[in-house]
Design a protein that fits this description.
The chain has 23 helices and 17 strands. It is of the alpha/beta class.
């Protein structure tokens, strides 16, 4: 039985105490097992759910109709089962904070955050620190188990003081200063004992809890210390009493902590263990990447008129326009309800304000770093990126750089607005070799898709003469390479990505012009390109 399957059984056994889990990987089998064992239903919560739907609000239309306040209870008040946060890495921080606050106040639901992020995208930390398990379901194996007897046994399971002290010591040794991990580790150990049919937690239960709850959260690991020779013990007096054996050979809390530390060490990957032994904190996760992508079209920005809709999820009621829409209907409504005084406003009259807000733009440079002109092109691309980044902080825009050379396209600079990071990444980049242009176009579409998923607007800028000579499969065939590049360009046009083709060739009728037409790109012939002209052209498109 995999430890992820054990964690599923423990969570089903004590959902209120263990609070939930953050899961990564294919989750269907895990969720099906958890639903079966816990005998609870799932409430699916997408990242774009409205705040009013979460916390509840006054139903304005029903209130106006009845004349008395009518409250719409939110999901957090009604949910009493399992809350499944889909695409949890995109959940905005304000919504994650509302869920966390409900958990802190004893809400009767269990949170399962399905983290579907890539690279450094992670579920919000504010939720991850409030659930017991951080699980990778890559090696998950479904289990067939009956936990009904364990559920009856759980309230009577006791935890010896030495195990409580041992788990608290191991939590501190791993750099966990919050009480939550230690408390949840104790709950997990207690559930493990009940699952095994015992009324008292033993060392094996504590070791399992340390591996499942504490190890994934470790931020430090005690470095190995050289053992110093102990001084010889003085001889015991002849009349000293025999040591009692009240613990029946049970280890002390310190000895138990050492054993638990060994159990944690065995479950950590070698690379992670090496970093932790140097007391290096793990790279910070992006707490809710979706917070960046929140579009405030109904909340802030420049006014852009009104539209019919309800004042929910932060939308602002346009009072004058609402009254204007209701005015023509007043005689008819008064005849239908003569008892009611004042202006008769109904749901269909509501008008809400619209706002226009500029979204973050990411300029993705795809640079042909092959052939004899590679050094010149790379130098101008570096200069253009640095010039653009000088304005990015004010506009909150970003840039990225993809180099096309050899047999592949390489993302040299992920989307960033940090000038220091860009200079460090761009310094001393090599050039030369073939031109796998199709690979470069496909790589740019992948980066553009990531930008769109984060709520931004991608702009792909090609610096090339369009003379592809490396096919998609890596073979050196100019005719096939050009066909592959044209096919990739047509896919980019279908994807609707804004593109700018800067043609570095001496003629305007070469393959770069044809690729620009295939992908629907703006075309700019610039055979004698310089960083300033490139930066000015890209700036104009980013601000359009």
């Amino acid at each position: 039985m995999s430890e992820a399957a054990l964690a599923c059984a423990l969570l089903a056994l004590d959902p209120g105490g263990l609070k939930g889990a953050v899961i990564r990987g294919h989750a269907d089998a895990f969720l099906a097992t958890l639903r079966h064992l816990a005998q609870r239903r799932f409430h699916r919560v997408p990242p774009h759910i409205g705040i009013d739907r979460l916390t509840g609000s006054i139903d304005v239309a029903a209130t106006l109709k009845s004349g008395t306040p009518v409250h719409d209870r939110g999901l957090l008040a009604d949910a009493d089962g399992l809350i499944l946060l889909t695409s949890a890495e995109r959940l905005p921080l304000d919504k994650a904070a509302l869920i966390a606050a409900a958990m802190d106040h004893g809400a009767p639901f269990t949170v399962i955050a399905h983290d579907e992020g890539i690279d450094d995208e992670r579920a919000p930390l504010i939720l991850a620190e409030r659930v017991a398990f951080l699980l990778d379901l890559t090696a998950y194996e479904a289990l067939d188990i009956d936990i009904s007897a364990a559920r009856l046994l759980l309230p009577s399971v006791a935890i010896p003081d030495r195990i409580t002290e041992g788990l608290c010591q191991i939590a501190l040794a791993l750099g966990l200063t919050s009480l939550r991990p230690a408390v949840m580790a104790l709950r997990a150990a207690r559930a493990a004992a009940a699952l095994d049919g015992r009324r008292e937690v033993d060392d094996d239960d504590a070791a399992l809890a340390a591996r499942l709850v504490l190890a994934p959260r470790a931020v430090t690991y005690p470095a190995a210390q050289e053992e110093e020779p102990e001084p010889p013990e003085p001889p015991a007096p002849q009349d000293s009493p025999e040591p009692n054996d009240e613990q029946d050979g049970a280890p002390t809390p310190q000895e138990l902590a050492d054993r638990l530390l060994d159990a944690v060490k065995a479950s950590l990957p070698a690379g992670l263990l090496a970093a932790l032994e140097k007391n290096l904190r793990q790279p910070g996760s992006r707490a809710g990447a979706g917070a960046v992508s929140q579009k405030a079209g109904l909340r802030r920005g420049r006014p852009a008129g009104t539209r019919q809709g309800e004042p929910k999820n932060g939308a602002r009621l346009a009072l004058v326009d609402t009254l204007r829409a209701a005015a023509p209907w007043q005689p008819l409504r008064r005849r239908g309800n003569p008892v009611r005084k004042g202006v008769h406003v109904e749901k269909q009259d509501f008008r809400i304000r619209r706002f226009k807000e500029k979204r973050e733009t990411t300029a993705i440079f795809v640079v042909d770093a092959s052939g004899s002109a590679a050094l010149h092109r790379m130098a101008e691309a570096k200069g253009a990126v640095e010039l653009l980044l000088a304005d990015c902080y004010v506009r909150r825009d970003r840039t990225a750089l993809i180099a096309v050379r050899g047999k592949q396209a390489e993302l040299l600079l992920p989307p960033t607005r940090s000038l220091q990071r860009a200079k460090k990444s761009l310094a001393g980049l090599p050039g030369g070799g073939g031109t796998p242009l199709a690979a470069g176009i496909e790589q740019s579409m992948l980066v553009a898709d990531q930008v769109r998923r984060a709520g931004g607007v991608p702009l792909v800028v090609f610096l090339t003469d369009g003379k592809a000579n490396i096919a998609r499969d890596g073979t050196a065939d100019r005719a096939v390479a050009l066909r592959d590049a044209e096919a990739a360009a047509k896919l980019m046009r279908l994807a609707g990505v804004r593109t700018l083709m800067i043609d570095l060739s001496e003629t305007r009728t070469g393959p770069a012009r044809k690729l620009a037409e295939a992908m629907g790109a703006d075309y700019l012939p610039l055979p004698h390109a310089d960083a300033a002209r490139i930066s000015a052209s890209v700036n104009a498109m980013m601000q359009a």
